[in-house]
Amino acid sequence: MAAVPLYTGTFGHAEAERLLWRAGFGPRRGQAARLASLGLDGAVRSLTHPPGERWVGPRPRDEKGRPLAPADAWGHDQLWWLDRMVRTSRPLVERMTLVWHDWFATSDAGVGSQKLMLAQNRLLRRYALGSFDRLLVSITANPAMLIWLSGTDNRKDAPNENYGRELMELFTLGEGNGYTERDVREQARALTGWTSTWKRGKGQTDFRFDTKRHDTGMKTVFGKKGDFSWRDSASMCVHHPKHAPFFVRKLWSYFIPEPPDAGTQAGLEALYRQGFEVRPVLEAILQHPALYSGPRMVKPPVVYIAGLLRGLNRGIDTSAWVWLSDGAGQRLFNPPNVAGWDDSRWLDTNAFRGRWYIANTALEKVTLGDRKGKKGPKVPNDPEAIVNGALAVLGNPTIRPETHRELLAFARASLKGATGWKAESYPPLVANAVRQLLAVSPDLQTS
Amino acid sequence: MRRLLVILVAVVSCAAAVPAGGGTDAFSFVQVTEKEFTLTLSRQSVRAGSVSVELVNFGMDNHDLVVKGTRIGSKAIHFTQLDPRGRTERTLRLTPGRYALWCSLSDHRARGMRATLVVRK
Q1: A164 vs A234: CA distance, rounded Å
Q2: ipTM of the complex as predicted
Q3: What is the pTM of this model?
Q4: Closest-CA residue in chain B for A205?
Q5: Bridge partner residues of B29 (DSSP)
Q6: Is A69 in CB contact (< 8 Å) with chain B?
């Protein structure tokens, strides 16, 4: 079996920080240093074998101070999940839930029920690091998915190919890779039988498999004949020879921007084929040299938001995050289509403006200066102290020397000639500006 | 005396569904999703007290919402008409009982845009 390369370089603060961003939502204060002290193997194992969940930080509220009602109030489902990202002590579990949400992209715009979307979210979390085979079988029968991809409209007298096609094209094999149009039709037949009941005031409920609605005839899928049912439909995809390569390439792409080399690809496929378990493949990816020495990746908007809040020690206290993350191109529970989000678009000109507003909102509670007649803390007329203060407020993230130089140059230029009354009023303005510039710098937009 | 009692009952019934003016009693949420021609509640019952009723138009036509207690004398509360994809929220003070909800536009109620919300103690 081809061995997967292991990173053997320094695993210090910067490397631990990158690991926490790629495998989670960024470090809390001091967390990168603690993780670095475990060494690479210990650090990765602490993420892939986390202890029981422990919430860190204030409970979430909306801007009126009300507790969240994720199933009953617009946007509260998104705030609920964002809160988990901010307060979780099991960041990789939560990050993988986000990965699966993109992988099996289901949108509330089509489902029309926050309650059903939340139930799907719990399912994705249950299988975050576990068996992909079991995850795929479970998501096939998930009510939100059954609505979204027409599972309950798929009947033996009128097969609907929607889920059968995406099962192969998007979830397990890749477009046109190892299956034919006949396979799509036969899979649709195998997947018949799911139904639900519409109840006034309740919507679609009582999702169940009805054998009377299922096509029990012989089907031919991937060249094999049998009276396949929906479980077989999912399992055959996982055991298809083209699935492991697809799975490895796709999972890898969430953590490392450049594709794996041939040896790494082969090694990861071999690992995965041992039982179709996610955890061992993830551990190999998170210890691969490409994660630590390769190029940076743009943080998805919700990861950026959660990371800012974690660094600022701030909880969810406003529903503004719903429209702010939407403005940056990502609304939880509402991927744009069944293919998920296009992560090559995170930094287009429109989305960047959204990120600017995100940074501004995140920093509003630590804005310096006089407020409502109260005098703010004194800010030294010292560019170096202002830049260091900005870093401290944002949790001391690692930044490149050139970024530090640019921020310092900005602070110096802004404070130049600030004498007399300006000596007291300019520094807080400059400090606020430096914080904003740091928060939207390439260093903090990427990991 | 009897007339006084009737007036008293009428006043209490009218107070059963009124917009809330704030307070520190129990707070619940319920989301009402409308589309052609259904009206779905995110939950079938809430606790009495201040209830945030959020109306979301998931459909392709305009819709509105009326909330009215089933007790005699209950006053109807009208939500503003929404365009498709529109949303609005009002906080109501609801006392225990059953409340009828419906879209009052055209024949929408007759076509299915109605539901019942139970407010429990």
Answers
A1: 9
A2: 0.79
A3: 0.92
A4: B40
A5: B52
A6: yes
